[in-house]
Amino acid sequence: MRTLFFWLSLWCGLVLQAGAAHAELAVVGTTPDLASIARSIGGGRVKVSALSLPSQDPHWVDARPHLALALAKADLLLITGADLEAGWLSTLLTGSRNGNIQRGAKGYLDCSTLVSLLEVPSGKVDRSMGDVHAQGNPHYMLDPKRVERVAVGIGKRLSELDPAGKSAYLEGTRRFVEELRAARTGWEQKLAKLRGRSVLAYHRSLSYLADWLGLRVVDHLEPRPGIPPNPRHIAHVIEIGKSERVIAVLQEAWFPQNAPKVVADKLGVKLVVLGTMPRFDRGDSYVTNMNQLVSALAPLGGT
Length: 303
What we know:
- This protein is α/β, with parallel strands linked by helices.
- It folds into 2 domains: 21-113 and 131-186, 3-Layer(aba) Sandwich (Rossmann fold); 190-302, Rossmann fold (3-Layer(aba) Sandwich), CATH 3.40.50.1980.
- The chain has 10 helices and 8 strands.
- Helix 3 crosses helix 4 (89-96) and helix 5 (144-161) runs antiparallel to helix 6 (166-190).
């Protein structure tokens, strides 16, 4: 019996040591795209969750207690930054009582610091201008070139927090970047005919997508960022659309479709509703979601 007890004790000790050696890093992304990239890079060494849903406008997330609880257990917080989460994240960070993921800590990574931002205001910003971000446009995750830099930054930070897994994170980053570059080549070939074409957009959230693909966003349905369309502005946008010969109206899935459909119908063009966030809950990756987005845009090349 003593011999059996000895071997059971030894086995349990080895199991506990193995578990400690491979303890998962708890990673939380404010958005599904950041979370999906962390999961692609970290693999089995990370346990990843997202604070916002793929169907949810990341500007407006309810700061609910279960989200603060997720942050309380986090080793690393990934944020889009440039004030995208300014309306809700600070409340959750305070409620988490987790010093390891507060601004300035090693467990806090503002991914906007890894890329160059578009549309940085040159003057004073105030609320009369609408939802204008003083640091620049925060929707850079729709540009695969910038996402590559984000991925490298995430892999580096994971390595710093978990040095024992450095080689695994390096390999995960390399694999993700190679997949992304190969996919980007295909996407650019598939959408090459869109370069130089004119479109209308609902919100200023497609600037990086347009910059990458060479699309011209000639106007937005919101008169100012975050301000819903009104009849007068809609009439103005329709006139702009006619004069610029737009080929489509583009919008993200979480915005209302009534006004965009009216504009598209008046112009005789297609309303394209884009799912810009991966279905993280279903296991979709960043590349998987971009494949779907590119497929939604591809028919416009023949118009």
